[in-house]
């Protein structure tokens, strides 16, 4: 990846990016098998390592793990083995997990002694980048975790929003909208993490006078994103601000609802979404720029997890 942040570094100090933005398949494709070092010991590639030799990365973007999902994965691993290797990097005498902590946790629960790994020499920035890309492609991060990872890459490693958008295959507006969530009170961010409200709800509350009180209303009443937007504007949810009537041309209020829906879908997918609505129906257009983005959309539409 052509990283603009590295433009000021000496050419001899730069190292090729390890397939960032293309997921673990690119990492596995780039990794040789058991390359020997001068003393004959394998230094990188795919190999088996003891589960106890691996440790989680403290900067892992994902902070919450669904216990039931890990148990289900552990049962699958116990019967079929761990099919996809864990990506690690050397760390002291042992190894630090770059991507695959969920699989490592499940392997422990399945009582595996050894697991397949891909060993890579990675910097701290590359480690966080790969962990972020992998979790996003697996849809494993909530909006706050994803925003925290973006903020860390910006603050600690001088990435720009444009560079992050290229890195994860999302739109720049998606990155910007997520980062704005970190301006919300911690209690509202926790509601997003716990799944009490969604990203669209939280985004509507960013400029509200009392986002904490409004977020509690949204959670307790089960309000929609558009109801939340009206609530944040001081309009009573469900009142004249945007009910659409099927079979009629789009009014100004309905247009506002369609724009809000476009933004909500764009936030979920991280891609530009357009809706053309008319009396006889309409069209939903999702714009993508890479095959990875198309693959992600297809998987989400089919309900398949990567």
Topology of this structure?
Layout: H1 23-30, E1 35-36, E2 42-50, E3 54-55, H2 67-80, E4 86-91, E5 94-99, H3 101-109, E6 114-119, H4 124-137, H5 143-157, H6 161-168, H7 172-181, H8 186-194, H9 199-204, H10 211-221, H11 225-233, H12 252-269, E7 272-278, E8 281-287, H13 291-302
Parallel strand pairs: 3-5, 4-6
Antiparallel strand pairs: 1-2, 2-6, 4-5, 7-8
Protein name: ParB/RepB/Spo0J family partition protein
Pfam families: HTH_ParB (PF17762), ParB_C (PF23552), ParB_N (PF02195)
GO molecular function: DNA binding
Overview in brief:
By secondary structure, the protein is α/β, with parallel strands linked by helices. It has helices at 23-30, 67-80, 101-109, 124-137, 143-157, 161-168, 172-181, 186-194, 199-204, 211-221, 225-233, 252-269, 291-302; strands spanning 35-36, 42-50, 54-55, 86-91, 94-99, 114-119, 272-278, 281-287. Residues 1-13 have a biased composition (Low complexity).
What can you tell me about this protein's structure?
InterPro entries: Chromosome_partition/occlusion (IPR050336), HTH_ParB/Spo0J (IPR041468), ParB/RepB/Spo0J (IPR004437), ParB/Sulfiredoxin_sf (IPR036086), ParB_dimer_C (IPR057240), ParB_N (IPR003115). It comes from Stakelama marina. Residues 1-45, 227-252 are annotated as: Disordered. Involved in chromosome partition. Localize to both poles of the predivisional cell following completion of DNA replication. Binds to the DNA origin of replication. Residues 47-136 form the ParB-like N-terminal domain. The chain has 306 residues and is α/β, with parallel strands linked by helices. Among the domains are: 17-138, Conserved hypothetical protein from pyrococcus furiosus pfu- 392566-001, ParB domain, CATH 3.90.1530; 248-306, no CATH class. 47% of the residues lie in helices and 15% in strands. It has 13 helices and eight strands. It has a six-stranded mixed sheet, sandwiched between helices. Strand 4 (86-91) and strand 5 (94-99) form a beta hairpin. It is elongated, with a radius of gyration of 22 Å.
């Amino acid at each position: 990846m052509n990283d603009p942040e590295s433009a000021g570094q000496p050419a001899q100090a730069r190292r090729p990016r390890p397939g960032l933005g293309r997921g673990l398949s690119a990492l596995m494709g780039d990794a040789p098998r058991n390359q020997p070092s001068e003393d004959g010991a394998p230094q990188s590639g795919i190999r088996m390592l003891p589960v106890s030799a691996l440790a989680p990365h403290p900067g892992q973007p994902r902070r919450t793990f669904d216990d039931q999902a890990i148990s289900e994965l552990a049962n699958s691993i116990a019967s079929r083995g761990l099919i996809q290797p864990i990506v690690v990097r050397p760390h002291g005498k042992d190894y630090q997990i770059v991507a695959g902590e969920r699989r490592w946790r499940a392997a422990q629960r399945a009582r595996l002694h050894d697991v397949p790994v891909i060993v890579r020499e990675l910097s701290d920035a590359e480690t966080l980048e790969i962990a972020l890309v992998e979790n996003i492609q697996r849809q494993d991060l909530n909006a706050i975790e994803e925003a925290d990872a973006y903020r860390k890459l910006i603050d600690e490693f001088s990435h720009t929003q444009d560079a992050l958008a290229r890195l994860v295959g999302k739109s720049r507006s998606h990155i910007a909208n997520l980062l704005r969530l970190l301006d919300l009170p911690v209690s509202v961010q926790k509601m997003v993490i716990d799944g009490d409200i969604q990203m669209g709800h939280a985004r509507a509350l960013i400029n509200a006078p009392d986002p904490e009180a409004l977020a509690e209303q949204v959670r307790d009443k089960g309000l929609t994103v558009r109801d939340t937007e009206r609530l944040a504007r001081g309009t009573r949810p469900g009142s004249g601000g945007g009910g659409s009537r099927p079979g009629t041309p789009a009014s100004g209020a309905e247009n506002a609802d369609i724009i809000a829906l476009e933004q909500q879908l764009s936030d979920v997918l991280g891609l530009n979404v357009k809706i053309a609505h008319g009396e006889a129906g309409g069209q939903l257009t999702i714009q993508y720029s890479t095959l990875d983005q198309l693959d992600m959309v297809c998987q989400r539409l089919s309900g398949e997890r990567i």
